[in-house]
Amino acid sequence: MQKPKVVILCGGKGTRLREETGTKPKPMVTIGDMPILWHIMKIYSHYGFNDFVLCLGYKGEVIKDFFLHRNDFSLNTRTGEKTIYEYKDKDMQDWNITFAETGENAMTGARIKKAERYVDTDSFFATYGDAVCDVDIGKLASFHKKQNTVATLTAVHPHSKWGLVKSGDNGMIEKFVEKPVLYDFVNGGFFAFQKKLFDYLDTTDNCILEANPFSKLVLDKQFSMYKHEGFWHSMDTYKDYLDLDKLWNSGKVPWKKW
């Protein structure tokens, strides 16, 4: 049985991270010395899922250049024929990567729909290009198969961006908790889908995966939630970037399972 492909949304402009995204797309912002996209791909690769479809948009050529320039190749300038030699980067030697141009302004649902032609497996994974997690992808796949729904979302606990203050009846502060992990669940990405998901999407740029398609899946009782109690961190702001980079450089990296 063919393993599910991994679709990664890489086309957003990252406007809340302008300090880093003026010259490159958000998935190419580096954590340590490698782009967060590489970290995400390593998570899937660790569990044996090495066939990727990258949905490109804003400055997608930067992503292409990153992967192409990590190995030797020859080019015939008359025919355009390119010969890629053995991949020198041992971390990516077994990866198959399809670079899908999905438009500068397409929303998440449109990008996935435009990549449909490259998804030839009965099920596939999908995620955002700006968050890391220590979720067990194998267990996620098993849960999705058992649920037998069109879609499964990995639900995670976010960190509060503010410190919580707890007071007693006398008006005195009893406890201050700096940016705690919240009890509620949010959409953490790291989806598992059946191919039937494409029936819920269209290629118009304003097709937002998290809007009408998700609402319709809920109404059709085709949406499952995989609860993940471990680490998850998105990179929405410059502060998020600094936090992730600090974690990586500390050597204690929750999402590094490889």
Topology (elements, then pairings):
Elements: E1 5-10, H1 18-21, E2 30-31, E3 34-35, H2 36-46, E4 51-56, H3 60-68, E5 73-75, E6 82-84, E7 96-101, H4 108-114, E8 123-128, E9 131-133, H5 137-147, E10 151-156, E11 164-167, E12 173-177, E13 186-187, E14 191-194, H6 212-219, E15 223-227, E16 232-234, H7 238-250
Parallel strand pairs: 1-4, 1-8, 4-7, 10-15
Antiparallel strand pairs: 2-3, 5-6, 8-14, 9-16, 10-13, 10-14, 11-12
What's a concise summary of this model?
It is built from 7 helices and 16 strands. With 258 residues, the protein is α/β, with parallel strands linked by helices. The model has no long low-confidence stretch (mean pLDDT 89).
